[in-house]
Amino acid sequence: MKPIATNKKAYQNFNLTDKWECGIALNGAEVKSIRAGRVNFKDTYAWVKEEEMFLSNLHINPYEQAGYIQPEPDRVRKLLMHKKEIKRIHGLMTIKGKTLVPTKIYFNSRGLVKVEIAVGQGKKQFDKREDIKKRELNREVSRAIRNRK
User: Fold this and answer.
1) How far apart are CA 136 and CA 138, in angstroms?
2) What are phi and psi of 66, to 5 degrees?
3) Whole-number pLDDT of residue 117
4) Among 46, 108, 138, 142, which residue's CB has the most CB atoms within a 10 Å radius?
5) Percent of all residues in the chain with a pLDDT value above 90, rounded to a whole number
6) Tens digits of per-residue pLDDT, 12-43?
7) Could you tell me if 1 and 105 are in contact, meaning their C-beta atoms sit under 8 angstroms apart?
């Protein structure tokens, strides 16, 4: 598994619970552009509509050596999953405050582009502050241990 891009903001802004791996429907040269790492996760989200899943605002820069017909960089892309999984996710999404957040894009062992999505609930401001305090405390402890040796 070779990660292409990770959504760092998802880990900061959401408490992520369940994670799934799903395929993504891409056109032509988008795979080459992803292989070059020209992907941006900013404000990306997933949603379910009539037993289908979609990914919005995933920006894939156009591939320079492709022909004159280029797909739109920010278009809505279909996510490929089994219907049972989609129904389960849709059931989780009916709970108030839950959102579908893509966390990373990577190539699997067969060379296919996969997207990892997670169900998340937004963090409050005080939750974010607590996470920062824990991180700083862990850094100080590791520094103290390192300096002691």
Assistant:
1) 5
2) -75, 170
3) 94
4) 46
5) 38
6) 888 898 999 999 999 878 888 888 888 988 88
7) no
Residue type, 133: K
The label of the residue with tokens 């809505």 reads 76
Beta strands 14-24 and 39-40 are: unpaired
Residues contacting 75, CB < 8 A, separation 6+: none
Q: What is the dihedral of CA 12, 17, 23, 26, to 10 degrees?
A: -30
Which contacts qualify for 90-94: CB closer than 8 Å, 24 or more apart?
Answer: 90/48, 90/51, 92/18, 92/119, 93/48, 93/119
Residue type, 50: E
Residue 3 to residues 10, 44, 63: CA-CA distances in angstroms? 16, 17, 19
